[in-house]
Specification:
- The chain is of the alpha/beta class.
- It folds into 2 domains: 244 residues, Alanine racemase (TIM Barrel, Alpha-Beta Barrel); 119 residues, Lyase, Ornithine Decarboxylase, Chain A, domain 1, CATH 2.40.37.10.
- It is built from 12 helices and 18 strands.
- Helix 8 packs parallel to helix 9.
Length: 414
């Protein structure tokens, strides 16, 4: 997928627009499975929250992936996309027992991350297989909002609470068939991940009927040229060896599971927007575009870096621009960024727009959410229509209050 493809798509479907390269997704999936080709029972559960368009889910299913979900709605999307319930793992946080029970009735693999819900669920449904999410107290992640394995995290059951966990399992007689961990996104140091894995192995030894170990994900992808990324091949080599050793000690061949989201779809996505205005001030040159953090919130929320290219003038003179959106508050994508010379009407493309971009979009300022396009073998396929005015009103209830009503209201006095 090249710049001319993106320009053509923006002209056909309008801007802003999200474009996903299917072949990049396929390549990333194969890269991960090849890195762990030495594992007999490998399960890659795609994290639906990264990009939940049903066409993307169907693509993942066709590759052989399972599905990692965090809500009953994602579970139902997975079923709609054709996944079998047994191919779906459900890992919620802070949801009601009723939602977990409803998902259990649908047949998905339940993954519980707190003692209270574990005891309640185990008491009421001791025969339903349950995975347990532990908190290894290992810090990973490029931003505090996406680091979930540290001691102050709301996620997982602390490894220091294992005695309580074991007592609940014994008292309820519940069926624990998996152990899970997730340290956070943007893992930089493989040794830290392997260290956390040892904690998972040590925890797993205390359960005799496990079927799988889920190592989460959080593999870092490059956000700019020359950026560091998780060395999947090295991790595959080292973790495969250690996993085989553990299975031999455990006396049973277990399934090794991952739940990548960003790793599979981030680099596949491009977000294309049109330049509305060039505004020179005393301190900078603003390039104001036809979108804002209502469509791409990661730079404002996480300080995330999305490389920006002027695909209308890729060979132009390099200048410094602050790229800003049209939302009526601070709405900055990049400050003083080197970009080839921009003119009003040019198209800019934001890289790494496949993960946690459209899924976090909103209608703030009553703006329409953009279209999504899947590009495969030279063809662009519309997979979500651009919203229209009627979409803003859908599900609203129009109540007209007559504030000039002169009717008197009698008030009884005691």
């Amino acid at each position: 997928m090249n710049d001319q493809d993106l320009i053509k798509i923006a002209k056909e479907f309008g801007s802003p627009v999200y474009v996903y390269d299917a072949e990049k997704i396929i390549g990333q999936y194969k890269r991960l499975t090849n890195a762990f080709s030495g594992i007999k029972q490998l399960k890659v559960n795609y994290a639906a929250k990264a990009l939940s368009n049903i066409s993307i889910l169907k693509l993942m299913k066709s590759l052989g992936a399972g599905l990692d979900t965090v809500s009953i709605q994602e579970v139902k999307l997975g079923l709609k996309a054709g996944f079998e319930p047994s191919q779906i793992i459900y890992t919620p946080n802070g949801v009601s027992l009723e939602e977990i029970e409803e998902v259990a009735q649908l047949g998905a693999q339940i993954n519980i991350d707190n003692l209270s819900i574990l005891e309640q669920f185990g008491t009421r449904h001791p025969k339903v297989p349950v995975c347990i999410r532990i908190n290894p107290h290992v810090m990973a992640g490029g931003n505090t909002n996406i680091s979930v394995g540290h001691i102050d995290s709301k996620f997982g059951i602390s490894i220091h609470q294992i005695p309580h966990l074991l007592r609940i399992v014994e008292n309820t007689g519940m069926n624990i068939n998996g152990i899970h961990m997730h340290t956070g996104s943007d893992i930089l140091d493989i040794e830290v991940f392997l260290y956390a894995s040892e904690i998972l192995f040590n925890t797993a030894k205390q359960f005799k009927d496990l079927e799988f170990l889920d190592f989460g994900s959080g593999f870092k992808v490059p956000y700019k040229e020359g950026d560091i990324e998780t060395n999947i091949e090295e991790l595959g080599e080292k973790l495969t060896l250690r996993f085989h050793e553990f299975c031999e000690e455990y006396g049973k061949e277990l399934t090794l599971a991952f739940e990548p989201g960003k790793f599979l779809v981030s680099e596949a996505g491009q977000f294309v927007a049109k330049v509305n205005v060039i505004k020179q001030t005393t301190s900078t040159v603003f390039a104001g575009i036809d979108t804002g953090f209502n469509h791409l919130i990661r730079p404002m929320l996480y300080g995330a870096n999305h490389s920006i290219r002027n695909i209308s003038n890729p060979g132009g003179k390099i200048r410094f621009y602050s790229v800003v959106g049209y939302i009526c508050e601070t709405d900055t994508f990049a400050s003083n960024k080197r970009i080839s010379e921009i003119s009003e009407g040019d198209l800019l493309s934001f890289s790494n727009a496949g993960a946690y971009c459209f899924t976090m979009a909103s209608n703030y300022n009553s703006r329409y959410r953009p279209a999504e396009v899947l590009f495969y073998k030279g063809e662009a396929h519309l997979i979500r229509k651009r919203e229209v005015f009627e979409d803003l009103l859908r599900n609203q209830v129009d109540v007209s209050l007559d504030v000039n009503d002169k009717k008197k209201v009698s008030v009884s006095k005691s």
